[in-house]
């Protein structure tokens, strides 16, 4: 009797093992491509499933550096080909750590155009990387503009109030707040700090607009590209959401085009009331998209 019980038990076990062997095993999850956080360190998984090493430029044109194990480096200086590059707390390259001219420097010529000098020599027919952004220079060494006509009469480093033609009101930081994502609207011209904008030109001919009080940049929220995407202020980060092409309308006014979206700085619905929202919208030449730049500093 005991032998029969043992045989039945063995048979049951073998049957179970056979059935388990016939069941499909759960497939492993597909390898994730992109940024991965692991043990407080950031990695970037490439399309072949391996960790990125060395320098990498992301979709926003920002450069990052990964060590031989694939760990993104931050708050440090990396030496590549004899040049030292500083990385910020978020890992993004923030510029060279050396001040000698062998690293190169942009200078504005007497003709009003920008040139890049390295060891006193103008570089030509090449691409210059400055703070993680690529700029092309031509056969004469001058930077090549990528986004249309220049803004005649706009001086880099000068401070302006920006008046909307349709409403007669000023581009304004809501309640003079200084936080990221603070809304930008129009409000009657009151000469307050909330309505001051310092305009700086990049070597590629585009501009950033900085509110001096908050020290934050005019920004398209979350780098969106749709009509009615909101405009706010945000810490300067060098992305195309904060780069603008200022184009003369040849009548003393300008249109201000966001590089990231290709859309114009626009007063919502062509409104004229205080606190009317400012967004981006397809360039249509209306007064809601025409702006006067009045220099105040």
TrEMBL record:
Keyword Heme: no
Keywords: Glycosidase, Hydrolase, Repeat, Signal
Residue ranges of Cell wall-binding repeats: 52-72
Residues in Ricin B lectin domain copies: 157-294
Top-rank lineage group of the source organism: Bacteria
Keyword Ubl conjugation: no
E.C. no: 3.2.1.39
Pfam families from the UniProt entry: Choline_bind_1, Choline_bind_3, Ricin_B_lectin
EC primary class: hydrolase
InterPro entries from the UniProt entry: Cell_wall/Cho-bd_repeat, Ricin_B-like_lectins, Ricin_B_lectin
CDD domains named among the record's database cross-references: beta-trefoil_Ricin-like
Signal peptide range in chain numbering: 1-29
Transmembrane segments: none
Gene3D superfamilies per UniProt: 2.80.10.50, Cholin Binding
Protein name per the record: Glucan endo-1,3-beta-glucosidase
Organism: Clostridium chromiireducens
